[in-house]
């Protein structure tokens, strides 16, 4: 766990015991005791063997992690490259509002679209031909409005980028 303090002294982090009933993973925001006060922190590693005498996490903040292992490695690189304390970089990458799980009854079914135009496009491209611009829209509330906006543009055809005016 790396405490959220703007100093290089805590870049290596500290080990804490996870109390029963609290689930944490890499990227979770937690509260920990440190030097007689309670500070927020970021979980950056898991799975070490239990050691006696570790202090316990005080609790978890939010339900979801704010970053994963891949993003953590990118933020470690940025901290080294820009000579910044790791907690500062992690804090800048974390959202201001803590992410929460939402209990939703379920998502609506995905609409089934017609046949894919990709085989036709691939065949025309291989033969040196050209297939006009197309668009696919779902059945959402904005489908009709998007179709009305896109229709004149698609009907006009395509213009190479180098023919567009530069102002």
- The CATH class of the domain at 2-93 is identified as Alpha Beta
CATH topology of the domain at 2-93: GIY-YIG endonuclease
Q: Helix amount, in percent?
A: 25-40%
Q: In CATH, what is the homologous superfamily of the domain at 2-93?
A: PriA, 3(prime) DNA-binding domain
Rg from alpha-carbon coordinates: 26 Å
Q: By helix and strand content, what is the structural category?
A: alpha+beta
Major pleated sheet: 4 strands, antiparallel
Q: Count the beta strands.
A: 4
Query: Alpha-carbon distance between the termini?
Result: 51 Å
Shape: elongated
Index terms:
167 residues, alpha+beta, GIY-YIG endonuclease, 4 strands, 26% helix, elongated
How are the secondary structure elements laid out?
Layout (H helix, E strand, L loop, with lengths): L1 E2 L25 E6 L2 E6 L16 E3 L7 H13 L4 H8 L24 H9 L16 H13 L12
Antiparallel strand pairs: 1-3, 2-3, 2-4
Helix pairs in contact: 1-2
Task: Report on this structure.
The chain has a domain of 92 residues: GIY-YIG endonuclease. Helix content is 26%, strand content 10%. The chain is elongated.
Give a short summary of the structure:
The protein is α+β, with helices and mostly antiparallel strands and 167 residues long. The protein has four helices and four strands; from the N terminus they run ββββαααα.
């Amino acid at each position: 766990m790396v405490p959220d303090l703007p100093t290089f002294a805590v870049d290596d982090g500290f080990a804490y015991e996870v109390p029963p009933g609290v689930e944490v993973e890499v990227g979770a925001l937690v509260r920990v005791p440190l030097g007689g006060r309670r500070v927020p922190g970021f979980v950056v590693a898991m799975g070490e063997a239990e050691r006696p005498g570790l202090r316990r996490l005080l609790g978890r903040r939010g339900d979801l992690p704010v970053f994963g292992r891949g993003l953590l490695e990118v933020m470690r690189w940025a901290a080294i490259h820009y000579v910044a304390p790791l907690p500062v970089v992690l804090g800048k990458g974390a959202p201001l509002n803590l992410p929460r799980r939402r209990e939703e009854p379920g998502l609506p079914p995905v609409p089934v679209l017609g046949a894919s135009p990709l085989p036709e496009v691939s065949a025309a491209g291989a033969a040196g031909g050209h297939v006009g611009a197309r668009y696919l829209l779902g059945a959402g509330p904005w489908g009709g409005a998007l179709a009305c906006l896109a229709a004149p543009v698609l009907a006009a055809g395509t213009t190479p980028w180098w023919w567009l005016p530069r102002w």
